[in-house]
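Holo prediction. Input below; ligand is pyridoxal-5'-phosphate.
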Amino acid sequence: MTRLECAAACGAGALDPERPQHLCACGSPLLARYDLPALARTWSRDALRDRPATLWRYREVLPAAAGGAPVSLGEGFTPLTHATRLGAELGMDRLYVKDESANPTNSFKARGLSVAVTRARDLGARTLSVPSAGNAGNALAAYAAQAGLAARIFMPRDVKEPFIRECELYGADVTLVDGLITDAGRLAATQAAEAGWYDVSTLKEPYRIEGKKTMAYELAEQLDWEWPEWFIYPTGGGTGIVGMWKAFAELEELGWMPRGRRPHLVAVQASGCAPIVRAFAAGAERAVFWTGAQTVADGLRVPAAIGDFLILQALRDSGGTAIAVDDDRMVAAMRELGRCEGISAAPEGGATLCALRTLLQQGVIDRADRVVLFNTGGALKYLELLRP
Ligand SMILES: *Cc1c(COP(=O)(O)O)cnc(C)c1O
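Structure of the complex:
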């Protein structure tokens, strides 16, 4: 890693990654940059063969860890399931599910937090804080515990109980906040500033994106270096979309993937909270705050995202789209993923299957296309949704 740059290219100079950095002076997220031309000469796909099956197998395009040892619980390199039975139901031969429920703490938040906690530790942080809808809090709590650091988690008061208990299990300090994740974010930011904690809010530090982008590296590797036509991804704060779009560019610069053939990105949101879908449909550059946000998919209950303009740009530049799904359909799709494929899906994962169905009906996606659904978390923390 050589520097940190403003994601909005506001013209501010590059920042030093060897110091704690959060946002650019203009308020935009920061992105980590690497010496990719040098790596393109010295690093090849073959070098991956004997690496550990975690996201740290791509360490050349991640921030280096002090002493070479990251804070790791075995995150990443999750299964890519060829969903043949579900595919047969839909008339598709080439449907895949990237099953992120296999990550530590049961969701893909582990990726971002493994990298962010590694960096925070190396930069001398002692206490880390995060506002969370649930999964980010669980992941921060686990990685902070492994690193011997303190974690302060701020969650909406109506968060499902397993998320609270799991934070406590890892010894984190939990504060329940009246309101939504944006309200939790405000309180977390105030307290962090007063107490000098290191804030790892979505896109408000540059390294969670780096962890999430490894999903694209893995998919390239698992699909034998050939991009599928579509990635269907449940979008809240947008770390995954922004991270994978960044990874596409890096993979091209490394010469590992051909230029100009990136997957189309589909952002899936809940009909009760769809600011990105609304902005995409309106052709807007930024999203408007979604009032009265409501959905059983906690990870999608994000009424405003600081990286909204980056998400919208990635969707458009990829020739993708954005689509909203009703809660009852998501829950039915959780059962379908379970029954047909043995996959434990969070409602957010179910939402991707609903989106696929609609896009097939609309003729946007062809049944012959290669499609990857992202099951971003497991069903276990959402069992209350499955009660008969
Ligand atoms: C956080 C979360 C999301 C949204 O992820 P982003 O990359 O921040 O948009 C989706 N699904 C689950 C299960 C989550 O926890």
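Residues 107, 109, 135, 202, 234-240, 299, 346, 348, 376-377 surround pyridoxal-5'-phosphate (CB under 6 Å). That is the main takeaway for now.
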